[in-house]
Write a structure and sequence with these properties.
There is one protein chain. By secondary structure, the chain is an alpha+beta fold. The protein has three domains: 79 residues, Helix Hairpins (Orthogonal Bundle); 57 residues, SH3 type barrels, CATH 2.30.30; 83 residues, Alpha-Beta Plaits (2-Layer Sandwich), CATH 3.30.70.100. Helix content is 56%, strand content 17%. The protein has a five-stranded antiparallel beta sheet with strand order 4-3-2-1-5. α2 packs antiparallel against α3. The termini are far apart. This is MscS family protein YkuT. It holds the Pfam family MS_channel_1st.
């Protein structure tokens, strides 16, 4: 009797499972074959594409508008600091892009039936927890704000912080990008920037030291040097003031060092110095003024040792 009961229950369970599977299969088929479902998904895809396209257009339009406003400020009769204007422009562009992308993501999630109220509430709680845990991130943001507010440096400036030296490409609220003259891009968190040397705020000074032989006439060499650098000043747009020939800088064992200094535009001292070295060398050669250099003297003995 018990065996017949167990067999009956097993057959009844198998029949129930088969019925459940058929019902589930029928629901799947009906769902897939329902045109209203596919139309609903099609509308969702179209809305997502529209939202994404609108976000890209808003970002592009805001960038164009910002560039137009900055160009208008540069042409304005009121003189604005172009360095700071360019820096703030990049920062506003980044903030606008972040805000538009955030709103776009929320609108796309809303199309898939995800309620935004619990999501925003949870994001607030998570943001509060991250604020306590990610202290370095908060430090980066605060430091970046004060860098821009105090105008410590701007986009296009040549700066040095720690072991990194180069041209500032971007200043964000979290990181600063510096490109070295050899092409490397250094991404530095703002919180680690504790000391900065800015080479682009004030004019620079090029120092040119030229050596002549002891046998040369110092007055003649100084006169030739003075005439050469003044001629170069008339055509060199990177010089701010006329060069000054200071005179004899030092006396060494085999040469006399003459010094010239000239005030240049910010961070242009090396280019000016290279050009002056070349022009002074040409002038010395044309006037027969000898620049000291090492000489090698060979002695040859004959068969008698003389």
């Amino acid at each position: 009797m018990d065996q017949w009961l167990r067999l009956f229950l097993a057959e009844d369970k198998a029949g129930a499972d088969a019925t459940t599977w058929l019902q589930f299969k029928e629901k799947i088929v009906n769902y897939v074959s329902n045109p209203d479902v596919w139309m609903n998904y099609l509308f969702i895809v179209i809305k997502v594409i529209v939202i994404y396209t609108a976000a890209r257009l808003v970002t592009k339009f805001s960038d164009k508008t910002l560039q137009h406003m900055l160009a208008g400020r540069e042409k304005s009769p009121l003189k604005f600091d172009s360095r700071r204007t360019k820096t703030i422009g990049k920062l506003i562009g980044n903030i606008t892009s972040y805000v538009v992308n955030f709103i776009m993501i929320l609108m796309i999630l809303n199309q898939f039936g995800i309620r935004l109220e619990p999501l925003l509430a949870g994001a607030g709680v998570v943001g509060l927890a991250v604020g306590f845990g990610a202290q370095s991130l908060v430090k980066d943001v605060i430091t970046g704000f004060f860098i821009i507010f105090e105008d410590q440096f701007a986009v296009g400036d040549v700066i040095q912080t720690g072991n990194f030296k180069g041209t500032v490409e971007e200043i964000g609220l979290r990181v600063t990008r510096i490109k070295s003259w050899t092409g490397e891009v250094h991404i530095i968190p703002n919180g680690t920037i504790t000391q900065v040397t800015n080479f682009s705020v004030n004019n620079s000074v090029a120092v040119v030291d030229v050596s002549v032989a002891y046998e040369e006439d110092v007055d003649k060499a100084l006169a030739v040097m003075r005439e050469t650098v003044l001629q170069n000043y008339e055509t060199n747009v990177n010089m701010v003031k006329a060069p000054e020939v200071l005179g004899v800088q030092s006396l060494a064992g085999v040469n006399i060092t003459l010094r010239v200094t000239v005030e240049c535009k910010p961070n242009m001292q090396f280019a000016v110095a290279r050009e002056l070295y070349a022009e002074i060398k040409k002038a010395f050669d044309s006037h027969g003024i000898e620049v000291p250099y090492q000489r090698v003297v060979n002695f040859h003995k004959n068969e008698r040792g003389e």
